Amino acid sequence: MSDELHAEHQEGLGDAEAERFWENHYSRRERVWSGRPNPVLVDVVGSLRPGTALDLGCGEGGDAIWLARQGWRVTAVDVSATALDRAAADAATAGVSDRIDFRQHDLALTFPSGAFDLVSAQYLHSPIEFPRVRVLREAASAVAPCRLLLIVDHASVSPGSWAAPEETLAPLDLDPDEWRTERLEAREREATRPNGRRATVTDNVIAVRRLAR
Ligand SMILES: C[S@@+](CC[C@H](N)C(=O)[O-])C[C@H]1O[C@@H](n2cnc3c(N)ncnc32)[C@H](O)[C@@H]1O
Fold first, then answer.
1. CA separation for the pair 143, 112 (Å, rounded)
2. pTM of the predicted model, to two decimals?
C-alpha cells in the first residue's frame, strides 16, 4: 500500500467505513489513477478469447475499459461512487458503455452474482478493515468452469513489510483437484510514485484456473 494511503488512514482512524474512506480518497483529487490498464492484466489476458469479466475494485475504470475494448463484457465493481462516475464517463468517451456494467458494492457486504470467464482483482487492498480472504474466496466462487481468477497484489502491503504470492493463494484453500495454478510469481516493474519519483515496485501475481466439473 502506498505511503499516501497510509497517511489518509491515519487521518481517518476510528472511521472503519469503506465507502466513506474511499469516497474521500477519490473526491479530494480530480483523478487518482492514470487511466491505463494494469500491465499484468494486459499481459495475462491480452491473448485470451473475450467473454465475461468481473473487475473487483475497478477504481476509475482503466482495466474495465481496456477489457471492453478487447471485446469483453465487463461487470466493474467499486465501493466509491465518485470512482464509478469517472469510470462511466471515460467508458462513454471510449465508446464502450454498452459493454460495461458499473456497480457500486461494498464487497465486504455484498458480492455481484453470476459466473464469469475472468475474475480480476488488481491491487484490491484497503487500509480500512476489509475481509480480503473472504472476498477473494467469493471471487474464486464466481469463476466459471475452465476460466480464470487473476489476482495482482502489491508485494509491499505496508511500508517495510513484504508478502510472497503464496501468502495470498494459500488462505483461499482452493482444492487442487478443482484448480490449476498457472502463475504464482513476484514481478518487478517501474512505476511513478505520487511525488513523481520513479521506483521499482514488486507485484505478486496469482492466476488460477478452475478445472472442468
Ligand atoms: C488500490 S485501489 C486499486 C484500483 C484499481 N483496481 C487499480 O488497479 O488501479 C483499490 C480499489 O478497491 C476499492 N475498494 C476498496 N475497498 C472496497 C470494498 N470494500 N468494496 C469495493 N471496493 C473496494 C477502492 O475504492 C479502490 O478503487
1. 12
2. 0.91
